[in-house]
Amino acid sequence: MSQLSYARYGKDNIRLYKVDKNEKTGVHTVVEQTVCTLLEGDIETSYTKADNSVVVATDTQKQTTYILAKQNPIDPPEHFAAVLGDHFIKTYPHIHAAHVKIIQHRWTRMAIDGKLHPHSFYRDSNEIRVVEAVTREGEGITIRSKIEKLLVLKSTGSAFHGFHRDEYTQLPEAWDRILSTEIEAGWKWKMFKDLTEVKKVDFNSAWVKARDITMKTFAEDDSASVQATMYKMCDQILAAVPLVEAVDYALPNKHYFEIDLSWHKGIKNKGKDATVFAPQSDPNGLIQCTVTRKSKSKL
Ligand SMILES: O=c1[nH]c(=O)c2[nH]c(=O)[nH]c2[nH]1
């Protein structure tokens, strides 16, 4: 009557912390991650026939994550995700694909009296670095890197006018508005043949470039719209990181409404006099795009 169409399973929310202690300098470097591993393969009978012999227990996946974290660097997270995926498909002949997601949390080194502290850190924002890697037996490794929850705002240098108007339109044109968004930016790497290829890539410098381009463009662009500004970000990341095939952004437009205060002693707080605004939590615009390289025409 029914059939299993798709299945994968694993351990989610594996919390992981690793410290590297430089014995010579006494400087510690810390990394904290939340890991999810999901396995695919010949596991159908575990669902349809209660056959647990094919199940690599989710607890085993968690223990494996700890052991491989001890035996390998966990930063950059792209490398560690590929190490985990490679282990699962090579260790278990009936497991044919491994999905590994890693969220890397921020621990920023404290500066005390102007000097970077050797072993004290703080969480400077909710921003996270995310990696989604899929290792498929006989195919290779696909990796998507992401920035999420990077909250930004500019108090001028943004406009939105000339948009389509009809009998449903109420929004006035804006030549100078506040622009605020929570950056979600992703970049998909070309398919890697194997772990050796992955290990050659400098994922950390790509992350720094993508983040710097995002912030610099946000700050410096005389923004005509969220759409136009985000396209410029994608275009620059593709130019800066040749191994990246596609860049995507999802940007909520976090609105700040002007408040009419003229009812109180004629206070001017609209247009060029506006200084006090009401930040809105919802609804918000949501602007998304994916940008890829133009295929080269054959001459
Ligand atoms: O940058 C913007 N893009 C839109 O599509 C849009 N729509 C809207 O109401 N405000 C904005 N702002």
UniProtKB/TrEMBL annotation:
Subcellular location, principal: other
GO biological process, one term: urate catabolic process
Positions contributing to urate binding: T58, D59, F160, R177, V226, Q227, N253
UniProt GO MF annotations: urate oxidase activity
Keyword Oxidoreductase (UniProt): yes
Keyword Disulfide bond: no
Alphabetic keyword roster: Oxidoreductase, Peroxisome, Purine metabolism
Role description: Catalyzes the oxidation of uric acid to 5-hydroxyisourate, which is further processed to form (S)-allantoin.
Name used for this protein in its record: Uricase
Organism the protein comes from: Lentithecium fluviatile CBS 122367
